């Protein structure tokens, strides 16, 4: 589904791509492989929302990416951009899913 979603995005079929990515992002399988796929899907959804100017929605997907993990750095950078785009400069962004470092620094 993830590969197909990328092809649909490239072909301009945004709604179909979005639905396919959401299906991957919402998968509740706890295996490490599925977790990585969920993170990739959430990152793709977030970056698409960010490119469309939807900062709030992008932030929600960026926050679903696990940290530590292979996509945590991109998600954290994107979370900052989504925060700025949403004009919430007075509110600090919430940490990424499972981010132990960030949550320990907040308390």
Core attributes:
single chain; 107 residues; mainly alpha
- The chain-level mean pLDDT equals 84
What is the approximate shape?
flat
Q: Major sheet, described briefly? A: none
Number of helices: 6
* Strand-pairing-aware structural class: mainly alpha
- Low-confidence region ranges: 101-107
Quaternary structure of the protein: single chain
Strand-residue fraction? under 5%
Number of strands: 0
Describe the model.
The chain has 107 residues and is mainly α. Helix 1 (2-10) packs antiparallel against helix 2, helix 2 (14-25) runs antiparallel to helix 3 (32-51) and helix 4 packs antiparallel against helix 5 (72-85). The chain is built from six helices and no strands. Mean pLDDT is 84; it is low at 101-107. The radius of gyration is 14 Å and the shape is flat.
Record the SSE blueprint.
Blueprint: H1 2-10, H2 14-25, H3 32-51, H4 55-63, H5 72-85, H6 100-106
Summarize the structure.
The chain has helices at about 1-10, 15-25, 30-50, 55-65, 70-85, 100-105. The protein is mainly α and about 110 residues long.
């Amino acid at each position: 589904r993830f590969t197909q979603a990328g092809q649909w995005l490239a072909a301009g079929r945004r709604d179909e791509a979005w639905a396919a990515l959401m299906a991957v992002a919402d998968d509740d399988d706890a295996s490490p492989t599925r977790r990585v796929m969920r993170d990739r899907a959430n990152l793709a959804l977030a970056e698409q929302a960010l490119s469309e100017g939807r900062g709030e929605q992008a932030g929600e997907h960026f926050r679903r990416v696990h940290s530590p993990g292979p996509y945590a750095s991109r998600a954290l950078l994107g979370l900052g951009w989504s925060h700025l785009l949403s004009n919430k400069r007075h509110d600090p962004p919430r940490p990424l899913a499972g981010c132990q470092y960030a949550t320990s620094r907040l308390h």
